[in-house]
Amino acid sequence: MDHRGAEPPRLTPTQMKVLCCVHSGLLNKQIAYELGMAEATVKVHMTALMRKLNVRNRTQAAIAARNLGWLRPALIRIAD
Question: One of this protein's Pfam families, by short name (predicted)?
């Protein structure tokens, strides 16, 4: 998961959209609905982007993307 000193991996625009949804906490089924694709297609994109980021799970993928500066830290909403 360490990409320091190396050129960051290149994700496709769709892989970036999927990654943003993962970072937002959406499940594969929800991502599929949001992006208008089959859940199986989301899984294909997840597998590809996790391989490119050299991570083993979706949490590590979101952390790696944030560490690369691709995503902003999620805002936590606290009820009044």
Answer: GerE
